[in-house]
Amino acid sequence: MGCLAGPVIAAAVILNPQNIPAGITDSKLLSPKKRENLKILIEQSAIDFAVGQASVEEIDTLNIYHAARLAMKRAVEKLSLRPDFLLVDGRAKIDLDISQQAIVQGDKHCVSIGAASIVAKVFRDKMMTEFDLQYPGYAFAKHKGYGSVVHRTCLQEKGPCPIHRKSFSWTPV
Predict the structure, then answer these.
(1) Tens-digit pLDDT profile for residues 118-128
(2) Which domains does the chain have, with CATH numbers?
């Protein structure tokens, strides 16, 4: 959620309890290669999965927290199957009429949330690599929109492009 550029992405995954890939954890703790391999295994073995997103404009309008909740809601709504119960990463439930439990640092403590974090992270990283081609000179393929020194230097030199989040007051945007 702390990126300077790009949409916020969330995933919903219904794992098959008989076929859960080994190694699922918080996506941020995995190497890019391990995340990509696990994403494939998760998508092949899951009962259902979907990805939702909230745009840069929605982030700037709603704030990142509420935009992330909206992306989560959209991911769940895109599932082919309606889940009986949701495990939600974070402190608050999402705005859906489905029983749910919010779990702080859920991606570290819950295999279902970890699986969703992997699917979402790989999806977003690929998207940012594609934005690198669309908006050359920002190195999006390298830093994926996070506030690295390289990214901040690019912003100072070039100014923001259309996918930069303008509501983040701590950025040079």
Answers:
(1) 999 999 999 99
(2) 8-123 (3.30.420.10)
